[in-house]
Amino acid sequence: MDTEPKQSIESIPAFDAFRNLLVENIGYFPTFHYDRNGLAGHRMRIFRTPPAADIRYSERALVRYICLADIITLAVSQNRAELLTSGLCLLAGGELLRHNKFAGLAFIASAFRDHNFVQLGPRQVIDTAIRAAHKQVAWRAVVNLLFPLAHEIGHLPESQKLCPAAIHSDAIYETYSINFEQVRGFTGNFDYRASLLNAESPLNLPTLRQEVASDFFAVAAMTHLPTRCASSDEVYPLDEIVAGILTFPLVMGAESMALKWGAGKLELQDITLAMHCRYSVIIDSIRASIKAQFRGRQDVAEVCRVIDSAVDHNVSQFDSWHLVVWDAFLDYFRLCQRFAQHSIDDILQMLRESRADARRSLAIASHLEMLADDVHGYSIDPDNHKELHEFSLKMKTFDTIVLRGRNALLLN
Ligand SMILES: [Zn+2]
To answer: What is the pLDDT of residues 302-349, one digit of tens each?
Structure first.
């Protein structure tokens, strides 16, 4: 549990309005703890009488969300899928290093092949996001921080009940088929229907229904928040809210992709279709939920037209971004297959090649140090931990010098 107030999401100005909104809609706000340890996602315990819930909000999952949202935004805005491929490798490398040193190093060396990332430690990532959300007009940052939490709360039975009946009806089959028509142009044909019954697949019918209902709940919460926080003369931050929310399904897809380095092609297609199904329902939910707040106004027709045109504009941008994300998924998938064939010698050779470029070598070294120092997130076994430091040192040791921080030590 975290007690440092500067780290606290509850300290951002929008949080009180968020809490009140949820209490009005589900009757209570869950008790809420930060979980600094472990890599698992957010966890929740639900109590029936009286209705209550206890959420363990995983810092690690939040950091992963913020980092992926940033790297996706960067990759799609520059139309450079390879940036996202490297981001996925970085994430997979960090996770793999805990158990499988060589596979982890292969992913990390590959991530640094074209870019010298400087990744902040987990604490700094959250601090930076919270600082941004403290600013007056930073709705994108607020959505990044609160949408994943709202989505978790959306899994509560009280929240699930609030979703439109269509999500629980046969209409959901249409969501699958309409989105399949949209993605198969780039994913290729595949039999998604069998996955509806597969409990392991993100396309599994009960799983997707529940995720979509949680998304609906989170969209409703996020879209109502600006109205709750604003003074009467403020303009509704349409673009920031819409773009912030539409990033969510992309991040969820990228996260499943990064954590499945052994995936086959069908799993890759399943992840992409599930991501698209959630995206399409989220778009409808955004329109409905923003419009509902302006019902009863005299100029409601004009307001709805403005809302639709802002949503349409964002959607056409995100539609093209889905193609960039697919390219990154495919590249990452091919890399995973290639690394599975690599011997230890192949991987050491990759690292040796990295050392030919001093800047790359130093970037890898500080990344490995960051991972090794992240003792809360990474339950690395002690031997592996020591070796991580040694690898990092090796990357900074040349024939005649060792680089330590800003100092260069000459070797005899
Ligand atoms: Zn969920």
So the answer is: 999 999 999 999 999 999 999 999 999 999 999 999 988 888 888 888
- Return the structure tokens found at 225: 């928040």
Q: Residue 41: inside a domain, yes or no? A: no
Q: What is the DSSP string of 27-81?
A: SS--EEEEE-S-S---EEEEETTTTEEEEEEEHHHHHHHHHHHHHHHHHHHTT-H
Instruction: Compute the distance from residue 277 Cα to the ligand 1 centre, in Å.
Output: 14
pTM for the complete prediction? 0.87
Cα-to-centroid distance, 26 and ligand 1 (Å): 17
CA of 249 to the centre of ligand 1 (A): 11
The verdict on whether omega for the bond into residue 226 sits within 30 degrees of 0, i.e. cis, is: no
Domain around 371: 353-410
Q: What residues are neighbours of ligand 1 (ion), with CB under 5 Å?
A: 211, 214
Structural domain includes residue 69: yes
Same-domain check for residues 89 and 223: yes
Question: Does residue 71 share a domain with residue 189?
Answer: yes
Are 245 and 136 contained in the same domain?
Answer: yes
152 CA distance to ligand 1 middle (Å): 6
User: How far, in Å, from the CA of 382 to the mean position of ligand 1?
Assistant: 33
Domain count, the chain: 2
